[in-house]
Specification:
Elements lengths: L3 H11 L2 H24 L8 E11 L10 H6 L3 E2 L5 E10 L2 H23 L4 E3 L12 H6 L1 E4 L2 E4 L6 H14 L3 E5 L2 E5 L10 E7 L6 H19 L17 H5 L4 H10 L21 H8 L23 H8 L5 E5 L13 E5 L2 E2 L4 H20 L9 H14 L7 E2 L5 E2 L2 H18 L4 H12 L7 H14 L4 H15 L10
Antiparallel strand pairs: 1-3, 1-4, 1-9, 2-3, 5-6, 7-8, 9-11, 9-12, 10-11, 13-14
Helix pairs in contact: 1-6, 2-11, 4-12, 7-12, 7-13, 12-14, 12-15, 14-15, 16-17
Amino acid sequence: MGDEPDLVAAVERSTDPEIREEFDRRARDQAVRIRDDIVSGRLDTDDFAVGMELEAYAVDDDGRLASIPEAAFDRGGFAKELGVHNLEVNSEATPFDADGLAKQADRIAENVADARTVLGDEGLVPVLDAMWTIPPAGGTDTYLGAVEERSGVVVARNMRQHPRYVALDNEILDRSGGTITVDAPGARLSYPTILAESLATSIQPHLQIPEVDDFPDYFNAALRTTGPVLSLSSNSPFLPADCYDAAADPDVIEATLHEHRIRVFEESINAGAPRGEGKVRFPRDLAAATDVVDRVVADETYAPVLADGDAPDASPYRSTIREYDHKRGVHWRWVRGVVGGQPVGTEREGASLRIEYRPLPTQPTVRDTVSIQALVVGLLRGLVAADHPVLDLPWTAARDCFYDAVAHGPDAELAWITADGDRTTDPDAVYDDLFAHARRGLREAGLGVDAIDDYLAPVERRRDGTVPSAWKKDRVREAADDGATLPEAIEVMQRTYLDRAGGQTPFVDW
């Protein structure tokens, strides 16, 4: 390939001890400036703002996973991701008010429609889903395990040939002894690349916080909401169908996690790291906004790249902190702080500090995505505005609730403290309080009652356990009961999902 020398050279530079030392020095120096800017108020903004990242994957007209041609990214309003089958659409940030949320809904819909049009010209369809399960024609193992060695650099054939991805792959492979393994009920994946991570797709609501002194409260509130919100949105119970043996025990259906996406991401990226200390994990509470910066600096450096030349896509502020920003990009936590974006809702030059809420799977429709976004941003704003006692929930309880939602989805053991100060695991009590405070936050943003009800209805109606992962399990169980093998049953389920995903009907009305 024509780019091989450049790709290999870029990976070799990322492993050069002198480059790594210089990268860390620059990141530390930039972090000092950021800390000073946080303390001085430079990262304060005039208002809240919201945004969204939405990841998806492409299939062909037979519903099988398919690669997206490079030319499609030049024509569409979507970006590349790790796998050649992945894409990401973003909604540009808007003020957190009635008009801003309406624009978010319009932009998400328009961007998904644009992706559908552009990919349609290539004979492909973008799928709003959290994990692909119908493999490409050659099979999952062949697809995810295909690698070649170029001058000592491992290159996964179905990974985007971007130096950052390839360098990261080689860094993690070196730390893991050359093999990435993901375990699941009834299946075990093992590959000489991190490409298994490309199984998983997610949505990531963002919330810009106006006063950085308040940032720890919003961050810590976000941690305590992850379990209950994930239990309403879980959507990735099954790995690709051909990862399971045809004679697999039907009990696998019951045993499988509701959110395998979380396990796949953690085990792919954390390979070789001590348990609980990998890059992907549930973060600790913040005591001060500057903790956001200190944690990035303290995090292990993976695949460093020294900034060189212009950064056309960066905000003016972020263009001055490029090494820090690169390191923050591989500081994977299920909630994290992002420094330096162009402020929204302010006329002056500056920067911002925002929450990136990362634990949520891609949802079946745009309407569901917009509903989850409104729930998250409304809930965080409402909890902090109310000085809600859930912030006193022990961190360990919040963490355990999150991972219980990963395992059990709508049947998770929730952990919450109500507005009256009562500790509870009762789902009705939890969700009564949770949605009440989401409504409060949306009212604080200037939305009327009817608009709030319209935004929240698709996700609030899931309180009875009607969530995507449970729907998928039910469809697989029905097919298995009718005599299908587990791989066949998963494919039957997924084809029904593909027929409905991306449409106008909210998931709860399927």
